[in-house]
Structure formats: C-alpha cells, structure tokens
Specification:
single chain, alpha/beta, 6-stranded mixed sheet, 24% strand, globular, binds zinc ion
C-alpha cells in the first residue's frame, strides 16, 4: 500500500490502521477483496496469498488470481499449495486456470490442493478441458507433462490439513448455507498466525479457530446496501435471504474478532464490492463498535 497524505491523516485520526513499514513474516497479501462472482472495477475476486519464506500458499482462486499474483510480484512457480474455502465461483473460478498458468510459468510438482469435494474432480477436469493446449505445448514447446502436477486433498471436517517444517494449516467448518462444507483456514508459523474466514455468517467454530490469532481476515457485508444489491437482480428476495443468512454484517464482524481475541482484524470480501459511496470509514465503523484492536479495511494488493 502506498501511504499518501490522506491515509496518513486518517490514520492519525484513528480511522484506519496503516500497515507496518516492514511487513512481518510470513507476509499476507490480499490479492482480491471483492465478494461475489461479477467482475468489478474496484476490486478483484477473493484470493489471499501467504508467503512463508519462498513458498507461496494461495487461499481461494477467484477470477483473476493469476494476474493479481503477477501484479503482486510473486511468481506462480512459488506456489506450494492452494486452499479452496468453498465452491462458490467467486472462490474457485480460476483454480484450474491458476494451475494451468502456473504450469506454463514453471510450477514444480507436486502442488497440494486442499478443499471440500468435488476438489478431486475439479482437479482432474483441468487437464481434460485444456487438453488441446496442454498437448500442443508439450509437443511444440517441450513442456513437461501436466499430469501429476497438482495433488488434490478433499477435506470434509475440522482439523489440521497440512503440516510442514515451517507452517501448520488447520481447517474449521463455518456457517455458509446452503454450501456445505465451507471452511476457514488458520496458518500457524513460529512467528505469526493468520486466519482466513472464507464466507460465513457469524460462526462459533471460526471464533474457536481464530482464538488469539495475530491476524483475522474476515468477510463483511454492508447491510444497508443489501437492498440495492438485491434490487438489481430478478431473484431479489432469494438473493437478499442468502446474503443475510450466510454472510457477516459489518456491525457483527467486530464481535467475532473480539470474541476470538485477535490482534488485527482485516475486512475483506466486501459485499457490495463495487460501491465507492461506502467509504472505508463506513466499513470500519460497525466493526469498531465491538472490537478495540487494529482494524484494516482491505484493498487489493495490500501487504500485511
Ligand atoms: Zn464469496
Ligand atoms: Zn460463498
């Protein structure tokens, strides 16, 4: 994030928190912060990057995730694992494309992919739907095989899903009806803990997962705008019902962060994600009512 005079003044007034000048390790990069599948002018689709040394871990693969990694200056070949929170298209649409672009950019086997079923089938289909391109590039450009590049691990319940020397990843089921299972993920390293909520209504299991974490990235919904968002759709009533039952209002997200006792709350997956009339102060105000820690209103490519 570039810190301009406006950000500085707002930070001094306690309205927003500025990132520390030298980001701690592991680094968290918000690749995409706009909730919902429609492409947006202001925010890319949901995706986060956690960098542990040279290793890159991607959480969610919304549309444009590969491009956002390029803009963040992180080569796709560094991806060691991918985590999908749930199978709404704003979170998985570019899973296959990220692996395909990564293959072109020198991704080394094996990349582990974690997420709910049908992750194995989605992974198998990457090669099938891209067969012409893959076979052509192997024959024409001498590329290595795509087969075996990505190893899917389907998860259906809480618990530790990945453990290496440097990082442990734990999943927890969250409340995002009608999608079941939907997960949040917690990354623990010796120096820092980072939790990504995925999509969820206020969730006790997420509070348990995020207890005492350094950073909680949590989705957020601006309820006064729901009428506007839903109103533009033909299925307005059902969309409104879905948004309110399966997401977390800005007035509630602070309670979650406070109950978990996290140090920093990062708002992301903004719904609506393309409405500049909802200012950072408006997003943060609801959270601040219940949470006294640091609040960051996320933006694409912010490094934390
Ligand atoms: Zn979503
Ligand atoms: Zn969702």
């Amino acid at each position: 994030m570039r810190i301009g005079r406006r950000e500085f003044v707002r930070a001094a007034a306690g309205l927003i928190a500025l990132p520390s000048p030298r980001p701690p390790s592991p680094r968290l990069i918000l690749l995409g912060t706009g909730g919902g599948p429609s492409p947006k002018r202001l925010r890319s689709a949901p995706a986060q990057l956690i960098l542990v040394g040279d290793d890159a871990y991607v959480v969610d693969c919304g549309n444009g995730v590969a491009r956002q990694m390029a803009r963040a200056g992180v080569g796709l070949a560094r991806i060691r694992a991918v985590f999908i929170t749930h199978h709404h298209s704003d979170h998985n649409a570019d899973y296959g494309n990220l692996m395909l672009m990564g293959w072109i950019d020198g991704l080394r086997p094996t990349v582990d992919a974690y997420g709910p079923p049908p992750l194995a089938r989605l992974t198998a289909l990457i090669e099938e739907v891209n067969r012409v391109d893959i076979e052509t590039r192997i024959a024409d450009e001498g590329r290595p095989p795509f087969s075996g590049l990505v190893k899917p691990h389907e998860i259906t319940t809480d618990g530790v899903v990945m453990q290496t020397a440097g990082v442990r990843v734990t999943a927890a089921l969250v409340d995002h009806p009608p999608i079941r299972p939907a997960f949040a993920y917690r990354f623990d390293t010796p120096s820092r803990s980072i939790v990504i909520s995925g999509d969820t209504a206020p969730s006790k299991s997420l509070i348990a997962l995020a207890t005492d974490a350094d950073v909680l990235v949590h989705e957020v919904l601006y309820v006064p705008a729901v009428e506007r968002v839903a109103g533009n759709e033909r299925q307005a009533a059902r969309l409104r019902e879905h948004l309110l039952a399966s997401h977390t209002p800005s007035t509630e997200v602070g309670r979650v962060a406070a109950a978990a006792g996290v140090k920093t709350l990062v708002l992301s997956h903004f719904v609506p994600g393309d409405d500049p009339s909802i200012t950072d102060e408006m997003w943060a105000a609801g959270a601040r009512a219940h949470f006294k820690g640091r609040i960051v209103v996320g933006r694409d490519l912010m490094v934390l």
